[in-house]
Write a structure and sequence with these properties.
The protein is an alpha/beta fold. The chain has 4 domains: about 140 residues, no CATH class; about 220 residues, no CATH class; about 200 residues, Alpha-Beta Plaits, CATH 3.30.70; about 60 residues, no CATH class. The chain has 24 helices and 22 strands. A hairpin with a 2-residue loop joins strand 15 and strand 16. The longest helix has 26 residues.
Length: about 675
């Protein structure tokens, strides 16, 4: 440090000792050092992440003088919502006859063009597939369909089918670019195909079909803000209401058609910084509408040009150096410095409000502080500790359980992924989307937090690892990061504990007038890869593999069988101490071989002999006995609320006397 002081003293002796000369010299050194440092990823990436954070905070305040009083005049979003999908026997893929009819109805209302943000990577019903295929080729208005030409994102059969289904002139790359923090901030330009061709992004391709050329670039996405009355920036219509929409509302408009569902194709936007992870998400089709509006209107995000940004850094460095020369105690300088930074940030917010111009905030703040510190160092003031503004941003996102294991014994947590036998548990709350739409965001946050806290408490009590939250759903596993020989038994016991907590919570909410749905739980055991997965600077500890997917399928099977817990045979074999009953021999979607599904039985079922009577009825079902219907009828009279009995009885009444159930939905 004495050498550094000597170096600056010699410079000051050469260039003069006036306060202004000293301040300018320090400002130049600080700005130069910062500009060199940001060229290194270890400093540049966290610094840019900080600037992104500051821009995200400014975005919702919008341009106070130009908030729209009407939706965008040229773009309409037609959403495939939960209510639309409820009208069909299967949710995915979307009924293609419905899509064909929808496109024709839009064309009949003389829309300008249609963007269809739906991926057609597998066949459904042949007649419906053919109807949509013909519509895509013969529609009198330009139509562009989401396309993916990357074998890493789709298997060979799906890619082949997609190419056959969507005509080349109607393909638009559906990719959505995400920053390192998983937030969508840019418009996807397009990509070169393996055969040497080029397919523009969905937004650009729509405009190309209209004869509007756009630059082959990935500009920053300028999100349109809500209208002055708080409504969205686009007219949004449910796909099943087009028959009733006046033609003048659609004529001449570019219509974006796609899913607007709670847990599917939703992406984090910069609004998540201020509105939270749930409210800050946006459907992919709506994000495409924002990108389309930007390209169509020719209005991009305004950033401070680099020369002006450098000038701003020099000014802030001069201010920092000036603060360093104030004859104030350390606490006094701290107050003045924080005040100066607060004024600067407030100015940055107000500047964006009235001009929509983003100026850097984090880097100038760092420059001010660095110049302040360096000034104290150069003029020989008492050294004091400085906060390190340039830290390593490499971090890994892990569950609380994994963090505990790492702190206790870091050698047990390998960075490299490993394959091992584990048990997986998925939970989901039935009808949660409907409930979420009927209460305020504050109520939703409090309700969900209390519910999830109880679920996590039970998982941690059973020494499981909480890997991921997906809205109201939870994914946990056992036997990682540390191996557990009784992982299956632990998971099943935990499922019972979660079920007890969830039912108690549900009944408590019912007394308060809230219709909180039943919690469905799926448990399965098998091998999978476990470890850290993700990008270099954003990773999570989780498990990947077919067995993980299968456990998620088991959770969803509960809605078919009327149960709350579904346990695979692989898990049941490893949990002999827990009383279970065989629910069905099911072939789940995506599989060809049946698997036995089990459900825990209550002590009361065992004591009353009901469990034995059910076992006898199920044995008759397995044997195809003609007495099976009568046995299940008797069980239904004894326990009308037994969902499993109701499921089999409904099939028996249709003359189906067999235990194997083939499920065509997830």
């Amino acid at each position: 440090m004495s050498a550094l002081r000597t170096f600056f003293s010699s410079l000051l002796a050469k260039f003069g000792r006036s306060h202004l000369t000293q301040a300018v010299l320090i400002a130049l050194v600080v700005v130069g050092a910062i500009e060199v440092a940001v060229q290194f990823p270890v400093i540049g990436k966290p610094l840019e992440a900080g600037e992104e954070w500051s821009r995200d905070l400014r975005l919702p305040v919008g341009n106070a003088r130009s908030r729209a009083r009407a939706p965008h005049p040229d773009i309409v979003v037609v959403a495939i919502t939960e209510s639309v999908l409820d009208a069909f026997p299967y949710r995915s893929p979307v009924d293609r006859q419905f899509l064909s009819d929808l496109l024709n109805k839009l064309a009949a209302k003389h829309v300008r063009a249609i963007g269809l943000d739906v991926l057609f990577d597998r066949p459904t019903e042949p007649a419906k597939d053919d109807a949509l295929r013909q519509t895509l080729r013969n529609l009198p208005v330009p139509v562009v369909v989401s396309f993916v030409d990357d074998p890493r994102l789709m298997d060979a059969d799906g890619l082949k089918y997609l190419k056959e289904f969507v005509p080349p002139q109607s393909r638009g790359m559906a990719n959505i670019i995400k920053s390192d923090d998983s937030i969508v901030r840019n418009i996807y330009a397009g990509e070169r195909t393996p055969d040497g061709g080029y397919i523009p992004g969905l937004d650009r391709m729509i405009l190309s079909r209209l004869g509007i050329e756009t630059p082959e670039a990935t500009p920053r996405l300028r999100y349109l803000l809500p209208q002055a009355d708080g409504s969205g920036p686009f007219t949004e219509l449910d796909a099943d209401t087009i028959d009733f929409v006046p033609e003048e509302l659609l004529a001449g408009k570019i219509v974006m058609v796609g899913a607007d569902l709670s847990l599917i194709d939703r992406h984090m936007t910069p609004f998540a910084r201020t509105q939270g992870a749930i409210d800050g998400q946006m459907a992919g089709v709506v994000i495409h509408a924002h990108g389309l509006a930007q390209l169509l209107d020719g209005k991009g995000v305004k950033m401070l040009p680099q020369p002006w940004a450098l000038a701003l850094l020099l000014v802030m460095a001069l201010i920092g150096s000036g603060l360093g020369r104030l004859g104030l105690p350390m606490w006094g300088k701290a107050i003045v410095g924080v005040g100066a930074i607060a004024v600067f940030w407030a100015g940055g917010f107000f500047l964006y409000v009235y001009t929509e111009l983003f100026i850097p905030l984090v880097e100038p703040t760092i420059v001010l502080a660095a110049a302040n510190w360096l000034t104290d160092l150069v003029i020989g003031r008492q050294m004091r500790q400085q906060r390190n503004f340039m830290t390593n941003a490499m971090s890994r996102v892990v569950s609380g359980k994994v963090v505990d294991e790492l702190l206790r014994d870091p050698t047990k947590l390998s960075v490299a992924a490993t394959r091992r036998e584990m048990t997986y548990l998925f939970t989901d709350v039935a009808g949660f989307t409907t409930l979420a739409e009927s209460i305020t965001s504050d109520q939703l946050s409090s309700l969900l937090n209390h519910y999830l806290q109880g679920v996590c408490d039970e998982i941690l009590q059973a020494e499981g690892t909480v890997c991921r939250f997906i809205g109201d759903a939870v994914f946990a596993l056992w036997s990682a990061p540390i191996e557990q020989s009784d992982h299956a038994a632990r998971a099943v016991a935990c499922a019972l504990a979660i079920d007890a907590h969830a039912e108690k919570f549900r009944l408590e909410q019912k007394e308060l007038g809230l219709s909180f749905g039943k919690t469905r739980i799926g448990v399965h055991s098998g091998e999978a890869m476990v470890g850290f997965f993700g990008a270099n600077d954003r990773m999570e500890y989780t498990a990947l593999g077919d067995n993980v997917n299968l456990s998620a399928r088991l959770e969803s099977l509960n809605k078919f069988f009327g149960t709350r817990i579904a346990i695979s045979e692989d898990t049941a074999k490893q949990a002999p101490g827990i009383k279970l009953r065989l629910t069905a021999n099911a072939v789940v979607k995506g599989k060809t071989l049946p698997m036995k599904i089990f459900e825990p039985v209550t002590p009361e079922m065992i004591e009353s002999g009901y469990a034995d009577r059910y076992a006898a009825a199920y044995a008759a079902l397995e044997a195809g006995s003609p007495e099976t219907p009568a046995l299940f009828e008797a069980l239904a009279l004894e326990r009308p609320d037994d969902g499993v009995v109701g499921f089999h009885l409904e099939r028996l009444r249709r003359g189906i006397i067999e235990q194997e159930v083939v499920l065509h939905e997830k």
